[in-house]
Structure formats: C-alpha cells, structure tokens
Amino acid sequence: MKLGKIFATCLTLVAASSVFAAQPITIKVGDNWNNTHPMAAALDSVFKTQVEKGTNGAIKVDVYHSGTLGNEGDLWGGVRNGTIEVAIVGTPMNQEFPTMMISDWPFLYRDMNHAKKVWASPIADEINAEFHKKFPSVRLLAWGPNSARTFTSNKKLTSVGDFKGQKFRMPGNPIHVGIAQNLGASAQVIPLGELFSALETGVVDGQDNGMVTVVSQALNEVQKYLYETNHIIATLEILVNAPFFDKLSAEHQKVIRDAAKATAAKAWDDYIASVDKDRQFLKGKGMTVTACSPADQQKIIEMIKPLTDKLYAEQAWAKPLTDKIRAVK
Q: Is the domain covering 24-326 a CATH 2.40.10.220 domain?
C-alpha cells in the first residue's frame, strides 16, 4: 500500500509538473495606433496568428493598441529594459543612433512601392545589424509603414505659397521642424494625443501626418484643407527585447522573425491600398484635398534644400545610404 501511495504521488507530481511546463510564454506587443491603422491591424491578423500557430500555442501574443502600454518613448524604454517584449515605434532613438533619421528623410522614394521594396531588401538587414550593435538589448525585426505624410490646415493650403506664416504642429525631430521652417511656416512640437485639442483651439493652424492618421484621429473634424505633399514616407519598426528573444529556441526565434516580416509586408500592401479610400473619405467629409503637382513638389524640394544640405553635411552615413536607397529598383 505504501508503495502504491508513493507511486500515485509521483504520478501526480509528474502530471502537475507537465501542466506547469506547458504554460505558454506570453509576449506583450505595444503600439500607439488604433486597430484601424494597417500596421496595427496586421499585428492582430498576421503577427499574433502566425506566432501562436507557428509555436503550437507555446507562445501567446497579447497586442495592446492606442498607447495602452505608454507613448512612443515609453514603448522604446520598455522594449529596451524588457518590461515589454515587442514594441512598434517610429524613431524615438534617432538622437542616439542618427542613422534612424533615414525613416524621416524627405522625398527619398519614387513612390510607396519603392519604399516597401527598400525595407524588405538587404539595406534593412544592414541597418538592423548596426542597430543591434548600438542597442544590444534590442533587435530590429522588420520595417513597416507609418504613412506618407501630408499637411493639413484650417487656413487655405492648396499650394506651396500657402505655408508662409502658418503654424504647424510637427513631431519633435529636426527633419520635420526644419521642413516647416524652410517652407516659411513656424513649427511647434505637440504630442499626438494633444493634437486634436491644439487644432480645435487654434494653438496651431495645421499639422503633418498621413491621411490614415487624419482619418483615425478624426482630424478632419478640426481641419479644412489637406495638401497631399507626401514629403516623407515614414516607417514603423518592429522591435523585440534581445534577452527575451535570445532565450527562445532557434525554431521559435524563426517563427517570430518570419511573422514580423510577414506583418510588415501585409501592412505595406494594406496601407498602399488604403490611400485612395482615405482620400475619398476625407473629401466626403468636406475637406479640400489638393494633390501636390510635380512642379510644386520640385519647389518644395528646392525650398528645403538648406535642411537637406545641413543633414548631409552633419551625417557622414547619409549620402551613401540615400544613394543606395534611391538605386533600389
């Protein structure tokens, strides 16, 4: 009897230990977008699905949209220190690693399909490796779309000359601020979460963001004009905490890498397909949407030349990298 009890106890312990061992690892994924943004939507439909299926449920993915885990700076800090396993951010690290300013480089691509090709090419792999050397606690897995940035305003904005004297909310980096200033406007840095109120109360006249953001943030309710300059085709980066990632099996690492690349590819396709729909939506809501003609685009490029000349002079990596990107077919 005693042996039988001991045997039964051992079986119970083995069973309990098997249940414990079978508990899935949970990945927290944070972004700053609502679930209608193509990148956020792809995290739900592609990343979560592929990782959970590819690991047979050994890894569970919880996605937190709309800044639930913090603003972009919080997400960047979280993925560096490991409190967040995966974060999707723009370039809050570009002051520490200036090469990431490439994400905001003006008039860099022929079109959005060109941008998609660049960030699925060996160029991305090279920067990913440099990124990990600079930030050993983080790995950069994939480059997806943020948006092709446009300008909106409450004041008339249908040509290059209309920028003069207007006040624009711009992201807090020298490229965006410099573009506004070179166009004859003034720039004010305001967090995205405070942008609607700033436009509504007249703190600023306008702002620059992709049409996808104008729609998702309902900025059409407080803006009358949209000038489709597409001056920057910005990216969002999928980052993973390196100590967490490096402890996974090689098989599970591959699943996550492949899922990140598939997520970015899906987001690019969906974003490119959404532009016409977003334009029609905004027109339907009463916004005056004006395409930037090739002649006006050339005027803008000439007007912001002081900015780009300064960037090339200050950043030794910039000319070789931008030349390499423009050469991608």
A: no
